[in-house]
Each structure stands twice: as structure tokens, then as C-alpha cells.
Amino acid sequence: xxxxxxxxxxxxxxxxxxxxxxxxxxxxxxxxxxxxxxxxxxxxxxxxxxxxxxxxxxxxxxxxxxxxxxxxxxxxxxxxxxxxxxxxxxxxxxxxxxxxxxxxxxxxxxxxxxxxxxxxxxxxxxxxxxxxxxxxxxxxxxxxxxxxxxxxxxxxxxxxxxxxxxxxxxxxxxxxxxxxxxxxxxxxxxxxxxxxxxxxxxxxxxxxxxxxxxxxxxxxxxxxxxxxxxxxxxxxxxxxxxxxxxxxxxxxxxxxxxxxxxxxxxxxxxxxxxxxxxxxxxxxxxxxxxxxxxxxxxxxxxxxxxxxxxxxxxxxxxxxxxxxxxxxxxxxxxxxxxxxxxxxxxxxxxxxxxxxxxxxxxxxxxxxxxxxxxxxxxxxxxxxxxxxxxxxxxxxxxxxxxxxxxxxxxxxxxxxxxxxxxxxxxxxxxxxxxxxxxxxxxxxxxxxxxxxxxxxxxxxxxxxxxxxx
Length: 469
Ligand SMILES: Cc1ncc(COP(=O)(O)O)c(C=O)c1O
Description:
single chain; alpha/beta; 3 domains; seven-stranded mixed sheet; four-stranded antiparallel sheet; Pyridoxal-dependent decarboxylase; Aromatic_deC; pyridoxal phosphate; Pyridoxal-P_BS; decarboxylase
């Protein structure tokens, strides 16, 4: 064995202790470290010809890189939809690396059985029934892609062709209808050979809404003259967290032939709270469902789940039959269900967090985050230089400069807030207006954090000029 490797093996307990001490300091200081670090990367170093050992690598990482890493796991990072990592999830993640199991299949370890147990818990958590099977993927984009790949195979079934064998050309043009789809849907359609341009925008409800107008959806389906289609329903839009009426959409299946995919990447977590669960009423009627775990479950990147009622079609698309991997069985190995073959045991952080805090603990995170978003929204309404663009429906606050909300001014405000190190919010465009979003999905965030975010917005919004009302 290489001498440095052999030395590291001998000192492994000390090395893990050093890493533990370092990580504990970093995580312990999360609430106070700059929330975002812009332009903080050092110049690239050359490839090391001779290594310095793991302790040496840790020292170099600490010297060169750690200070430039953002506080994205911390309480005032409100960009995109970013969860943190609960203490239990972090523990599970460390052990995932320590065990280094390949979750692609069974036969040598109970690790895949743990993954199945976790998936069944998640199914229950999101109010889905036994008809839905599940698999782990890397994120909501991957989950949407897998869901739409199954939809594509279903379209083939309806038209009497096999897409997985003959290719997507056998389908002819595909109709995909949605009100306010996330950009990952277009990406998925591109990856799947269906084409981004096949995504048809269906009008949304009037009055600051992003939820699809179900009557207009019915009209669009009617216009297809009986041709089967795919409907992407949205349970939690990124800008204003609006929800399509899933029951009403599902009811359209009595008249029209379509696959119902629901992107519930973070909105699915409404199911955890009796107060908000009605927003996802009907989720269990979907043919495929996307839920992201590295968002509101607060497990580390990367983890999401893909649920479907048609595992048979999923296996047709994704099976990887070879003599050394074995054929798909009644309870197929995970390698037959998603694009990946070998991969880490993605379930362990979720298993740890659900075991440690239960449904109750995760419900509390969701409800607290929603209350905090409401608090930020109320605070922003009091800042003359800013204005809310939509009511705060759940966990995202969408706002913009009161005067001249140009892209330039929005970006300038986002940059000033980020440079202050106090908070991080990300730009968007809502109903044609450049805007900012503050998304709450971190388990650590408190009222005190919201007040600090408000202070930063007040300070950096001051230069924007007052609202004219
Ligand atoms: C509704 C929705 N769908 C999909 C995604 C994509 O998620 P990921 O970045 O995990 O692929 C997001 C991310 O914010 C989202 O909010």
C-alpha cells in the first residue's frame, strides 16, 4: 500500500476526530458566518504530484477553501428553495460515506431494505397509498425526468408502440400541458427527446394566481380530439407557492385520456400539516409524483423521491438487464428504476431524520417556516421602498422595489444583501415583473433571523426610493 495511504489508515480514528472537530466548528458557526460569499474562490492550485496525507488535505482545505463556502445550510439563506441538514440527517450522511454501500441492488446487504423502509415512510408522510411505488433520485429535476419518462412510455402504450424499444420517434408529436411548470420540466422534455417546445402553457387563474385554470385545461385537452396527452400539475410554484386543484384535474380523466404528473418538489410537504394538507388534496390520484428531500425534509444534497403507479412501465424504460446484474423481478432492484446504476445509499439521512424527529418534528419545521415567511411578508409590507408582488401563500415571499422594479435594480438589491453577509435571496420574474424571492425551508430559521433579514432589506432597500402610494 502507498505509504501515505498506509499512514492514514493507521491514523484513521484521529483523522475522523480532526474532521469531526473541524465540521463541528463550521456547523456551530453557521448562524454567524457570511450567508453568501461572492468572488471568494482562490486561484487554482496545480495537481499534487505527491500527496500530503488526509490531515494535510484538511489543513489545505481549511486554509484555501473553507472561508469561501456559503452559509447555505444556515438559517438566513433564503435563495432558491434550500433546505439545511438536521443533526440526525447529517449523522446519517456521514455514515452513508463510512459504509459506502451501493444501493443499486440487493443480495449482499440489508442496505436496500433500509431504503425500501424509508420509501414506505415517505409515501405515508406525503399521503400516498400502496398503489404508489417509489425510488430515490438525486433531486427534483431527476424526479421530474423519471416521471415524464414513464409518462412517455404510457403514451406509447396508449398508441400501441413501445418507446423504450422503438424510440421516441414512434410517438409522433407529444402534447404536454401545464399552467406554471418549473423550468426543470422543459429540461426533462429536452432530455427525453420529446422537445421543450411541446410544453403548452395553459392559462392560469386570474388575480395574482399561478394555479392552472382547470376549465382552460379541459378546453386544451378537448382540442386534442382524443389524442392521449401528459398533464404536469404543479403543487407549489417557485414564485408564489400556488397549487393546482389536483382533484379537479384528476376528475378530467373521466373525459380525457392523460397521464397526470405532479411536481410537488417542495409543496408536497404541505401534506405534513393538518393546516395546509388540503393544498395537496388529490396528490394520491397522480400517476407520477416528484418530491424533493434536500429541500424541506432538510437532508443534505442530494436526495429526492419519484413515486409512480406504473412501476411496470418504469421498469420497461429503466431496466438494465445483464447477466451480472440480474433481471428485474417483481420487486425490482433500484438499478432497474432510475437512470443511475451504482449509487450511494441515499436513504440513510432521511431514515435518520425521520427516526430522530418523526412526522411530528418535521411537521413543526414546515409550520414554523410558513409562519416565518408570513412574518417576513408583513415586515416587507412595512418597508416603503419595497412591495409584495403576491400574497404569502406558504413559505416563499415574492417582492420587488416599489419604484421602477427593473432587473438591474432587483439584481443590485440582491447583490447588496448578499454582500452584507446577512441574508441571501434570489432574483426571479413574476408575471413579467423582475422580483426577488425569499424561500423558507431551513430547520434552523427563527423569528430573530427574519428580523435580521428585514433589517438588511431595510438598510439596502433605502437607496431604492420610496413607494409612491
Ligand atoms: C417546483 C420545483 N420543481 C423542481 C425543482 C428542481 O429541483 P432540483 O434543483 O432539486 O433539481 C425545484 C427547485 O427549486 C422546484 O421548486
